Amino acid sequence: MQLFITALDFIGTFVFALSGAVAAARRGLDLFGVLVLGIVAATTGGILRDVLIGVIPPASLVDWRYFAISLVAGVLTFFWVGVIDRLRRPVQLFDAAGLAVFAVSGAQKALAFGLEPAMAALLGMLTGIAGGMARDIMLNEIPTVLRAELYAVAALAGAGVAVVGELLQMPTTATTLAGVVLCLALRLGSIYLGWQLPRAAESKSANDRESR
Length: 212
Known about the structure:
Helices cover 77% and strands 0% of the residues. By secondary structure, the protein is mainly alpha-helical.
């Protein structure tokens, strides 16, 4: 189980590092900035998760492979950003993949360390959204999770599937894939089909001001 969670962590680290590096490259940052954004996006969620469940120091700070994977993703992006950028909405695609993998692995690691199922699902969601939030804040953007898109909800759904599957003693691989697929489907539906949560209604006075 530990090896499986670590493998998921490495996959999530790579794709989130790509999302951070691509976002930095699009904003015209230099090589150092691209690498830093990649590392921040890739490790923030895992560090926060480990601190909250009492794994001190966090895995990404003691295992050099997390740092190396993030650096590789950043270097590939910096030199091949033109190739990566040909994908439609590359930052969102990489972010969606990282969100799905980290949400599920975060929930499973929380369960492995004895957290209650509901708290494990919430921690999985937090693991998934933290890296993207840190990336957006460093780029002076409103974090995606605070907009009306399906982001945190998608992460919670994927983590919830992993938790329920563990409670029902279903095969770990099957529940992991189901959770990742559900989270990814909800997130891609938000990106490509416009699925979103209800927006706050604007006040009448605000509408009047805009119409003047």
